[in-house]
Amino acid sequence: MKKISFKWWQILIGLIVLVMLGDLGYSMLKPKAEKTATTYTTVKVKSAEPLTYSGTVQAVRTQVLVPNTGKAQSVTVQNGDHVEQGQAVMTTYSQDYEEQVADARSALSKAQRQVTQQQQALTQAQNQLQKLTSTDEGYSEAQEQVTTAKNQLEDAKADVTDAQNKLNTLNSKVNGSVTAPFAGTVTVEYDKTGQPSVTLVSDELQASTTVSEYDYNKVSLEQQIKVTSLATKKKQETQINYRATTPAENSKANEAKYTVTAPLNAGDFMVGQTLNISIPQEGLQVPATSVKNGYVYIVVNKKAQKVAVTGQTSNGSYIVTDGLSSGQRVIVDPDGELKDGKRVETND
Prior knowledge:
membrane, four-stranded antiparallel sheet, seven-stranded antiparallel sheet, efflux transmembrane transporter activity, transmembrane helix, Elongation Factor Tu (Ef-tu), domain 3, 24 strands, coiled coil, conserved putative lor/sdh protein from methanococcus maripaludis s2 fold, transmembrane
């Protein structure tokens, strides 16, 4: 039998092949290691943050009181006085109405003389009628004269009443007064001619602020709000009682603002104080980046769970109205690798 011999290089190649086959077999038989879970950042689902605005304390009503006619004679109040509705704050005098009063007196005297004349005419007509019987010629005519005289007398008396009322009205305007249309506190000022004006500030106070056009629909009448004075730290819960439908004067292009007010307790606040106004919002809040195509991923037992949500974006957040519960943890920025049921780790 012929002996088979191998050259050294053939032996080397064989050894290399054996080693490669061994490695391949080992890799095939070796148990596969479990893939490492991806790490994500999560946040806890919480109630939506309230809208916060700076505001001021204002009087519900403010009115400057000046004479409607004539000039002020005297001021009957002092700075800081509290007045009641209907209380006089100044007396007035009008020279123009003084001249009209003289004319009105003359008209009244004329009307009174007319009454006297008509009374005499009626008496004469009645006396003439009494001299006749119903069968006498001229009796019917005499009756008509009495009726006419009575009517003319009534007309004359009505003219006297009208003239007297006009005179009374004019007299009140010659020497009149300016009265407070509502209760409040007064401030007295004088112009360069020495004529006074009285500014009346009502007792009723209100919180006032302006909300952005982008927040307008998040604010409603009778909505509960929280008001805090920055100076005194006094707080009050109250309700919105006015929401303007036209922009405020301080509005800018593409940034309309609308006035909102709410009543305040006068004993706890002062006109002019600066306020922090907090307007609670409904719904839950998550970062806007956590919502992809109407879905978020919450973490349950270290696995991602895809959940559909509804709501709207607001100032970098997403206000959820349905789909989530407070306290759940939501992945902040899900990537394309994240799938429903995928094992995840969190770094928070």
